[in-house]
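FIELD: query
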Amino acid sequence: MIDIKKSRYSKYFLFSSLYFIQGLILTISWVIIPLYFIKFEISLPVTSLVIGIGMLPWSIKFFWGGIVDYFIEHGRKKFILMGGLLFAFGLFSLTFIDPKEYLALFTIFLFLSVNGIVFLDVAIDAWAIQTSEEEDRGKISGSMFAGQNSGYVVTIILFTYIGFNFGYNYVFLIAALIAIIISLFPILFEEKKITRKDQKIKQILIGEFKKKKTQIISLFTSLLFISSGIIIVAIPMFLSIQLKLDDPFIGVIIATATTAQAIGCIIGGYTSDKYGRKKMLNLYISISIIFILLIVFAKTWLLLLVILSIYKFLYGGYTTINLALLMDTTNPKIGALQFSILASLANSGLTGGNAVSGSFVTLLGFTRTFIMCAWFLGPPLLILYFINLKNNIKNG
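FIELD: result
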């Protein structure tokens, strides 16, 4: 077996591979389902509502995090495999469900599938926190999100091609098979299990969230991703409805922009370790506001691709830095639970944005929707000013 603590590059490979699986559900939720539902003439508000309900488990990660921490003596690997299998089962079931006829059933199995990926995710995060030090968490976060975005890029191209030419039900089947294979990777790695001590998880958790710094970071991360949650779902709709592009070409555009996001993840993680979390968050978020506003002026697919790629690069940067900041804030004794609560706050903004995206577009139109998305980054940028990281040399 490979010793994860002695081999830095194998650590990056493992966590980036497991995050690759998450790219599958992002492609399915943010690209495949909007395009799939447009074919069935399902309304945009209903489409984004289904996506919002399906992605809801990301906002309750703390439930799975509590389970993973409670049974900490069993390690993390078992839970990664269990989550991967549940994820695959939900996707496999979607293969046989017609969303036009059985929309509620489709939503239920999508929700079940996402629960599996969230279960897998909290176990991965806890293992990453357990096996890393603060000085390399930015780089680990970067490798994880690079893996996620790589999965997003590869499967956007693959799944839009398969869905357009052979039917979208085959997308769910292939995604399930990929998830099962990658979920088996942790078997190759040695895991040092932690013995659960008599300390009560609840008492430690309450103590951590009584800290003013933790409270401000919690508010910051809960507001940071509302904007991107709206944009992520609105872009495929914009490309299909406004620019009237076909599905495979939409896949190529989003995949290209997401490649820039993967690069942003790596550079964001590296620069946050070198120059500080707060300084780099200010930089990436501020410039993101400008490029979200520029989307309004994109009247051709080429101009949109350039603007979207730069925005995605910046988004990848501040997403990675935020993850590293949450890792820094987390007490390793309750790594899965506390981190999953913090991540749930971040995901609640993302999921909320997903859920209202179609309604925003229907009521406001694409132009005003993107203007609102730029505005939504203002409050977290203001709150960031009050986050004090001066006691930490690494964070500036």
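FIELD: remark
The two ends are 38 Å apart (CA to CA).
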